[in-house]
Amino acid sequence: MKLYHGSTVTVIRKILIGCLCLLAAPFAAAHHNPAIVRDAVLSAEADTLRPAEADTLSTAEADSIALEIATGGKRWNVKGEEIIPSTSSAKDDHLSWVKRVNFGIKGGFTASLFRIPHFRVNGVKIGEEQNSYKIGYFGAFFMRINFRKHYLQPEISYNVNRCDINFNKPLPEGSPEGTEAQQASIHSTLHSIDFPFFYGYNLIKTGPYSLSVFAGPKLRFILPHASEVTFENFDQENIRESLQRVNVAAAFGVSVTISKIFFDFRYDIGLHNLSRHITYAVPADNGTPEAEEAGKGMHFHRHDNVLSFSLGVFF
Description:
Elements: H1 8-31, H2 34-48, H3 51-54, H4 59-63, E1 75-76, E2 82-83, E3 101-121, E4 124-125, E5 130-147, E6 150-168, E7 183-206, E8 209-222, E9 228-232, E10 237-243, E11 246-258, E12 261-270, E13 275-281, E14 298-314
Antiparallel strand pairs: 1-2, 3-4, 3-5, 3-14, 5-6, 6-7, 7-8, 7-9, 8-11, 10-13, 11-12, 12-14
Helix pairs in contact: 1-2
């Protein structure tokens, strides 16, 4: 604003008005009465502006003026509120959108693959089983704790994984040459609650964009009553598989973040056998005694590996 150069009396008057503002601001702040500071602003502006400009200064305009006066190391505005200086540096301004702790949700699709190190039917080892992928799904809630380029991320998720196993049944002893083997299959739909815990490192972190890798353990609780395993075209009847309710997996993956949206690609490796034991009944007309001989019957061990893709958002 332009100062009006008047007489010595005008200069003295300005000094007195300035002192009045110094005295009025702390009093107004203590009593939360911005009108006191506003009146001081009106008086000071009326004397420092040219006469023609002072007449056009409205009360509303005076209310919008932030009168910041140093009093005992504190600063006050026209609303009587203390102004606390910002301590953030310009260097960190581009990371101001990043919170120390983030919460979020994500959901996606899964594809399961069973590794079967031990599979015998009627005492014959099955070594040419085939996995048929089926699409599963999951939803998760997570918390991310950020440490510059590092982060920790615990999660809780509900998962539904599906997979089919197909194989050719071993031929009975004494089968004629050229007899074609029949195919049998196992259909699995596993429901579980998972608790992954990841350590992540941001390879690229520029503003709202980042590319990170992560890895960690996953604790898994299978829900047997919600899960379903069916055996099709087996010689045995009423086959029931008892599943390990608690097992552990190792997981690793890569994540791409754009502002509050991110994409995850992850691969889980099962570390435990999912199958505790299998019970079944033997038909009376197949010539096999009710009590199976040692090494005969069905023996089934499997580990599940899961490839997943997810889309998520930070809160």
